[in-house]
Amino acid sequence: MIYGITLILLSILAVPSLILSKRPDAQQALDKIAPYQGWIGLVFCFWGIWGIIQCILNIGWLSYPGMGIKIWWITWLAGNVVEAILGFILG
């Protein structure tokens, strides 16, 4: 659950113009975060790359019977790729 929340927050930071078009009063909050945006992006980029490495190291899970673990592994990989890309955009 926390992983999903961090992805949502990271996407909000990556696309501030969308937030400002809906809520112009959010500019103050975005201005407070702006000095740290590069560091936040760098941390999330490395965290996403580390997650991709973990997915590749656990690729053996795809050989387990049942579809649930395969879907979970693909979702895990996709989330880490999105996290690395958004972190790179912010960094």
Descriptive report:
With 91 residues, the chain is mainly α. It has one domain (2-90). The protein contains 5 helices and no strands. Helix 1 (2-14) runs parallel beside helix 5 and helix 4 (37-57) packs antiparallel against helix 5 (68-90). The longest helix has 23 residues, at 68-90. The protein starts with a helix and ends with a helix.
In short:
The chain is mostly helical and 91 residues long.
- Helix content class: over 70%
Helix-strand makeup class: mainly alpha
Task: Quote the beta fraction.
Answer: under 5%
The number of strands is 0
What order do the SSEs take from the amino end to the carboxyl end, as H and E? Answer: HHHHH
List keywords for this structure.
0% strand, mainly alpha, 91 residues
List the helices and strands and how they pair.
Blueprint: H1 2-14, H2 16-22, H3 27-33, H4 37-57, H5 68-90
